[in-house]
Amino acid sequence: MIRAVIVDDEPKAIQGLTWELSNFNDDLEIIKTFTEADKAIEYINSNVLDCLFLDIEMPTMDGFQLLKKIERKDFAVVITTAYNEYAIKALKNQAIDYLLKPIDSDDLEETLSRIKNYYSKTSSTSKFDKILSSFNEKFNRRKITISTDGKLVFLEESEILFVESDGNYCSIHTTNNKKIVITKKLKEVNTLLPDDHFFRIHNSFIINLNKIKEFLKSDGYVILENNNRIPVSRQKKSDFLDKF
Hints:
single chain, alpha/beta, five-stranded parallel β-sheet, five-stranded antiparallel β-sheet, 15 strands
């Protein structure tokens, strides 16, 4: 059963969408609805769901601001709005679909199909990540196993210069100037890297400590091999210096 939450400041819109969803699908259950963004955030951050139907135009906080306050976005997001100018921004916020109000039945049916596909892929990815974790623990930790573009990439620790965050994605920068993009958050990547050689030096960066050439104390930057310039956050500076 796919567990869904609806957030919309208009009660009638919630009632209409709930009715449509109940008519279309027996595999989806509306577990909670909210007209207030703050209450929705509190619930979503402390409960498990598979899908969020989210309105954009709300009085105290818009839907995109709400998404930024969600700690763990491991569910499908469907934007529901009366304004079509939000389509591109919806995609940038990793929404899997975009429904214009009044919601068309055919569009909703297509959206439900996408939700099922997303849910199926997410379940498979979760199992696959557990296999990868087991693999990394069992074999030599000098090899970092990364899943990307439907394949496994095996990297030596010495090949990785730094990792850069881009929201729900990360870019792994290597010593041969390659960039490997993966669908993991930085904190997830951090668990894959041994902490004796790697350090999260900033909210957006993890660096390979063995690749540091210089530390510019006054400017708050490190210079890595290949002359990559990475900022050191004030909160991390003391812990970073303790590493040496």
